[in-house]
Design brief:
alpha+beta; eight-stranded antiparallel β-sheet; 40 strands
C-alpha cells in the first residue's frame, strides 16, 4: 500500500512539473511579443522624431536664407532689375526641400529713428524727419506639413510624419555694413552695397581721410545732449565710409557711436552676479555682439539720465583682463575693474555692493540697438589754428599723417609723432593775434583726435584672409575692400568743444574760452581773444578714454585717468593798426528789356560805392567781423519783377518788393582782392549759370 502511494505521488509530481513549464513558455512568448510591439512603436517614434528634427533644421535654414536674401539689396529705391531696400515688404513664399513644402510668411515692420534725440524709434515717421525708414524688423514664420513614412519602395504608412512651424526675426538697417550684402544659397548673383547718395562734410570741422581707390572715411562733429550739466551727458557722432568720384558720393558703411555718463548701483561686486555681455568688438566687417557671461553687474541709479544707462550699468564689467575686457588700455587687473563714486569733496571713493558709482560707456549701434563696446582710446590729439585745413593740400597732408600712423599702429609699431607744418606747432612758427588774413582780434582754435580699437583675433584673421592669404579672396569677409585701411577700426574726430582749453598759467596776453558743455554745441571752447602783447601758449587737454568724449570729470582713480595735453604757440601783439582791406570790384548793368535806372550799392562789413553808372567797388573792413555783404537795391520798375544776378558771387537773399525801398539782393563778398565781378539786373529769376 505504501509502495502504491509513493508511486502515485511521484506520478502526480511529474505531471505538475510538466504543466508549470508549459505555462512559463507561454508567458515568455507573450512578454516577447509585447516587447517587440513596443520596440516597433519606439522605432516609429524615433523615426518620426528624427524626421521632425531634420525638417526643423531645414526650416531654420530656409528662414535664414530668406533673411539673407533681404539683406542683400543693391539699391535703396525700387529699381528694375535690382534688389532694393524699398522692396523689403510683407510677402508669402514657398520653398521645397526633400519633397517637403515650406511656407514662409514674412512680416516687415519699418522703424524710424527720432532725428531730435536719436535715442528713440517709432513705427511711423517723425514730424520733419525722413520718410525713409532707418531700419526694418523682418519676422519670418515657416510652416510645413510632413511626408508619409516609407515602409519600402512600394509601400508607405497611411499617416503623415507630422507638421510644425518656427519663427525667426532679424533687423535690417537701411545702410548696411560691408558684409551684409552676401550671396544667398539660391541666388549666386553678384551683390554689393546699396549706392545711397551721400554729401561729404566740410573742412575744417569734418575732414575726409583718404583710404585710397576713391574711398574716404570721415566722422561727423560730435553732438552732445546734456541731461544734467557737466555730470550726465550723451555725445553722438557717426563714422561714414564712402566712395566718391566725378558722378558724386555714395555710402559704403556707417557706424553710429555714442558716449554716455551714468550713475549706477553696484550689484554683486564679488563677481557672482547675473549674465552680462562681453564688449561688442570690431571684426573688420562689422561690429560683433559677444556672448553673455556670469559676472558682476550694475543697475541704473536714476531715471533722469540716458535710457542707455541701463545697458551701460549692466554690461560695463569684466571677468578679468585681456582682449575681452572693456578697458584693454588701462593696464592689467584681476577680475572686474574697480568702480568709484565721488564724495562731497569731489574725491573718488571705491564703491562696494549696493553703493552708487559713476560710469562712462562707449556704445555702438548694432542691428538697430545700442550695445556697449570696448572703451575709446585716444592715440593722438592735435590742436591747430583756425585757418589750418582750409586748403586741399593741408587736408591731404593731414590725411596722410593719420593713415600712416594707423598703419604703423596696427603693424605693431609705436604711434609716430606728427610731421605736419602749420602755424602754432612750435615757438618758431606761432599762430598770430590779430590774425594775419582777416586781422580779427580773436581766433577759434581747433583740436582733432584719432581713436583706435584693439585689433581682435577676428580682425587679425580677417586682415590675413583679405590681404595675406596667398590671394584667396574667398576667405575675405569684405572682398570689395581694396586696402587694410578699410578694415582698420580708427576714427578721426573733431574735439574742439569737448577738450578743456586754457592759456599759459599766469599769462595775460590772451584769454581762451572754456564754457561748460551744452546741448547742440552752443557753448564756447577754444576761442582765444587778444588782451596784451606777449608770446602765450594755449593748451587743449582731454581724457583719452570714454570720459573725454563726454567732457566730465574722471570716474576712476585706479587705474588713474590718462590725458592728452597738447599746446599751441601764439604771438599776440596789441595796438597794430589794421591794414587797408582788400578791394572787390566789377561792373553792374541792366539786362535788355529791364529798367535803365541806376541801382544803388551798400555794404555790411565793407564800404561799397558806385564810381559811375557801370562799375562798383567794395573795400573789406578790417578787423573783419562776420561775413562781408554787398547789397544791391533801388532797381524797382512797375509791372516788372527784377532781381540782381551774379555768376561770381553767392546770393544770400533777395526781395522782389513793390517800390525802390524794398527791392534788393544781398551777395556774400570774398575776403581777398577780386576784380571783374559781374552783376546784372534781370527779369526774375536769374539765368542758369553755365
Amino acid at each position: 500500500m505504501n509502495t502504491h502511494n509513493t508511486e502515485f505521488r511521484q506520478l502526480v509530481n511529474r505531471n505538475r512539473m510538466h504543466g508549470t513549464t508549459l505555462l512559463e513558455v507561454l508567458m515568455a512568448v507573450v512578454i516577447f511579443i509585447v516587447g517587440m510591439l513596443a520596440l516597433t512603436h519606439l522605432q516609429g517614434n524615433l523615426t518620426r522624431s528624427s524626421s521632425d528634427a531634420n525638417m526643423r533644421t531645414v526650416a531654420a535654414s530656409v528662414a535664414e536664407e530668406l533673411i539673407e536674401e533681404k539683406r542683400a539689396f543693391e539699391v535703396i529705391e525700387t529699381t528694375a532689375g535690382k534688389k532694393a531696400y524699398d522692396d523689403i515688404v510683407d510677402e508669402t513664399v514657398t520653398r521645397t526641400r526633400g519633397n517637403v513644402v515650406y511656407t514662409a510668411t514674412i512680416d516687415v515692420t519699418p522703424f524710424y529713428i527720432n532725428p531730435a534725440d536719436r535715442t528713440s524709434m517709432s513705427k511711423t515717421p517723425y514730424s520733419g524727419g525722413s520718410t525713409k525708414s532707418d531700419l526694418k524688423l523682418v519676422e519670418v514664420a515657416v510652416t510645413w506639413s510632413g511626408v508619409d513614412f516609407q515602409i519600402d519602395e512600394s509601400a508607405s504608412t497611411s499617416g503623415r510624419m507630422g507638421s510644425g512651424d518656427l519663427r525667426f526675426a532679424s533687423v535690417i538697417p537701411a545702410i548696411p555694413s560691408l558684409n551684409n550684402a552676401r550671396v544667398a544659397a539660391e541666388n549666386d548673383g553678384a551683390l554689393g552695397y546699396p549706392p545711397v547718395d551721400y554729401t561729404p562734410g566740410t573742412a575744417p570741422d569734418i575732414v575726409a581721410i583718404s583710404l585710397g581707390n576713391n574711398k574716404f572715411k570721415e566722422s561727423t562733429t560730435p553732438d552732445p545732449v546734456v541731461r544734467r550739466r557737466d555730470e550726465l551727458v550723451e555725445t553722438w557722432f557717426d563714422v561714414i565710409t564712402y566712395t566718391s568720384n566725378a558722378s558724386g558720393a555714395s555710402f559704403l558703411r556707417r557706424e553710429e557711436f555714442a558716449s554716455v555718463s551714468c550713475k549706477c548701483t553696484l550689484k554683486s561686486a564679488s563677481g557672482s552676479g547675473k549674465d552680462g555681455r562681453q564688449p561688442t568688438r570690431w571684426t573688420g566687417a562689422a561690429y560683433s555682439e559677444q556672448p553673455l557671461v556670469a559676472k558682476a553687474y550694475g543697475v541704473s541709479a536714476s531715471n533722469q539720465q540716458s535710457q542707455y544707462c541701463d545697458v551701460c550699468c549692466q554690461d560695463h564689467h569684466d571677468t578679468g583682463g585681456g582682449p575681452n575686457s572693456y578697458r584693454p588700455f588701462a593696464g592689467s587687473f584681476s577680475g572686474n575693474h574697480p568702480h568709484y563714486n565721488r564724495n562731497n569733496q569731489g574725491v573718488l571713493t571705491l564703491a562696494g555692493t549696493n553703493d552708487t558709482y559713476l560710469e562712462a560707456c562707449r556704445l555702438v549701434r548694432k542691428d538697430g540697438f545700442f550695445r556697449v563696446a570696448q572703451d575709446f582710446e585716444l592715440r593722438s590729439q592735435l590742436p591747430i589754428p583756425q585757418n589750418y585745413l582750409d586748403q586741399s593740400g593741408e587736408i591731404s597732408a593731414y590725411s596722410s599723417y593719420v593713415t600712416n600712423a594707423v598703419s604703423d599702429y596696427y603693424a605693431g609699431q609705436p604711434w609716430p609723432a606728427h610731421n605736419l607744418s602749420f602755424d602754432g606747432r612750435d615757438a618758431a612758427n606761432p599762430t598770430q593775434l590779430p590774425t594775419t588774413d582777416t586781422f580779427q582780434t580773436s581766433q577759434q582754435f581747433r583740436s582733432r583726435g584719432v581713436y583706435t580699437d584693439v585689433a581682435s583675433a577676428a580682425l587679425q584673421a580677417n586682415l590675413y584672409n583679405c590681404f595675406h592669404a596667398a590671394g584667396d579672396r574667398d576667405l575675405c569677409e569684405v572682398p570689395q575692400a581694396n586696402s587694410a585701411l578699410e578694415l582698420y577700426p580708427f576714427f578721426d574726430v573733431q574735439l574742439t568743444k569737448l577738450a578743456r582749453w586754457r592759456e599759459t598759467s599766469g599769462g595775460a596776453s590772451i584769454r581762451v574760452t572754456n564754457q561748460e558743455i551744452e546741448t547742440d554745441n552752443t557753448h564756447s571752447r577754444g576761442v582765444a581773444s587778444l588782451v596784451a602783447t606777449g608770446n602765450p601758449q594755449a593748451y587743449s587737454k582731454i581724457e583719452k578714454g570714454n570720459v573725454g568724449l563726454i567732457s566730465i570729470a574722471p570716474v576712476t582713480s585706479s587705474p588713474a585717468a590718462q590725458y592728452s595735453d597738447e599746446r599751441l604757440f601764439v604771438k599776440a601783439v596789441l595796438g597794430i593798426t589794421p591794414p587797408t582791406g582788400p578791394t572787390i570790384s566789377g561792373t553792374l548793368t541792366n539786362a535788355g528789356g529791364t529798367s535803365s535806372k541806376v541801382a544803388s550799392v551798400s555794404g555790411t562789413g565793407a564800404t561799397c560805392t558806385r564810381p559811375d553808372n557801370s562799375t562798383f567797388s567794395c573795400v573789406i573792413n578790417f578787423p573783419l567781423i562776420g561775413t562781408p555783404v554787398l547789397e544791391v537795391g533801388n532797381y524797382y520798375t512797375k509791372n516788372m519783377t527784377l532781381i540782381a544776378c551774379s555768376p561770381n558771387l553767392v546770393t544770400l537773399s533777395s526781395s522782389q518788393g513793390t517800390n525802390n525801398n524794398n527791392t534788393w539782393t544781398r551777395f556774400q563778398l570774398p575776403t581777398t582782392a577780386t576784380s571783374n565781378i559781374t552783376i546784372t539786373i534781370n527779369n526774375f529769376p536769374c539765368p542758369a549759370t553755365p
